[in-house]
Write a structure and sequence with these properties.
By secondary structure, the protein is of the alpha/beta class. It contains 11 helices and 18 strands. α6 links the parallel β11 (162-166) and β12 (185-190). The structure holds zinc ion (2 copies).
């Protein structure tokens, strides 16, 4: 099978033999996968990664190494998959927090080969069926939409609460739509008129920001992916407000902590989320992603796809088998 390999900043495509499917795992034929900012960070040398990246995908189950029941439940199904492979027997796993299991591996990121290959493997328990009405290209967005939905599990956001989202990249556009679908009044601040326009139909108020407002929002989400984002988010937050940190910036972020302390602002880190609400939002069409797909490449042209994904102004680039 074809497999993308990332090592020392170079993306190559290799022909390798099919790996075995361990007990409790399913083999999944990749139908579509998306290059995300994390993949580009891995290419830049984040985590000292070498191997097959890819964690946003939709696929079809072609083999199940499990019970008769698991086989009949999953064979031939179109699926998305949770990316954290938890150990299932530590305290964190017992509490249902496998996403924080200290012994976990992570699809395409930490010690488990990713989705940029013809066939990938995941534990059966990680799988989620893709509803028939949800096309494969949209289902690829389940994982990043779940990451946006995680905010709603962490912060109580009520109908009509005012929320500012910083950053009009892929994650910012999804966060803004998810929070608007939840009923919040969302202001999205970004730098690119054409990207902001993509979410205006979803009830998001957008603003090309020259100067950001100060002390105005009770909840601010930083999805800029930049080191300055957190500083701006804290400045925009009212006293006793909440700043959600959605940007994973590689390297150190230096901020003056005084404004956060003086204004008693709560800082919340936020990463992966549950898939169920994401599948609902994408199926109902309340989160729209079609216009976020900038380009599609066959797997054997992965190096070109990575170059395209790193180009300014490009949103999601999909790989297809
Ligand atoms: Zn991602
Ligand atoms: Zn565990």
């Amino acid at each position: 099978m074809l497999q993308v390999h990332l090592e020392s900043k170079r993306v190559t495509v290799r022909k390798v033999s099919l790996s075995r499917t361990p007990a409790g795992f399913a083999r999944i034929r990749m139908l579509a996968a998306a290059i995300c900012s994390t993949d580009l960070e891995l290419q830049r040398g984040y985590y000292g990664f070498s191997g097959t990246p890819g964690h946003e995908f939709a696929g079809e189950v072609v083999a199940v190494n499990g019970s008769q029941e698991e086989q009949s439940n999953w064979m031939g199904q179109r699926v998305a998959g949770e990316i954290n492979l938890a150990c299932t027997h530590c305290d964190w796993c017992a509490r249902g927090l496998g996403r924080h299991c200290p012994r976990r591996t992570v699809l395409g990121i930490v010690k488990h080969p990713g989705a940029f290959r013809e066939f990938l493997t995941l534990p059966i328990r990680n799988l989620h069926r893709i509803p028939d009405g949800l096309p494969t290209e949209r289902a690829v967005f389940i994982e990043p939409v779940a990451a946006a939905c995680e905010i709603l599990d962490q912060v109580k956001i009520k109908m009509d609460d005012r929320v500012a989202v910083l950053g009009d990249g892929k994650l910012g556009l999804l966060v803004a739509q998810v929070l608007a679908a939840h009923g919040a009044q969302v202001n999205l601040f970004g730098r690119h008129r054409e990207k902001l326009r993509l979410v205006e139909g979803a009830g998001v108020t957008t603003e090309v920001s020259r100067k950001l407002p100060e002390r105005e929002f009770p909840i601010v989400v930083d999805a800029t992916g930049s080191a300055e984002g957190l500083h701006s988010a804290i400045a925009m937050c009212i006293p006793r407000g909440i700043v959600v940190m959605k940007s994973t910036v590689h390297g150190l972020v230096s901020i003056d902590t005084a404004p956060a302390i003086v204004n008693e602002i709560t800082l919340i880190g936020s990463r992966c989320g549950r898939f169920e609400p994401a599948i609902r939002l994408l199926s109902s069409g309340r989160v729209r992603v079609d216009s976020m797909i900038s380009d599609q490449f066959p797997l054997d042209r992965a190096p070109g796809a990575f170059r395209r994904a790193a180009t300014k102004g490009i949103l999601k680039v999909l790989l297809r088998p």
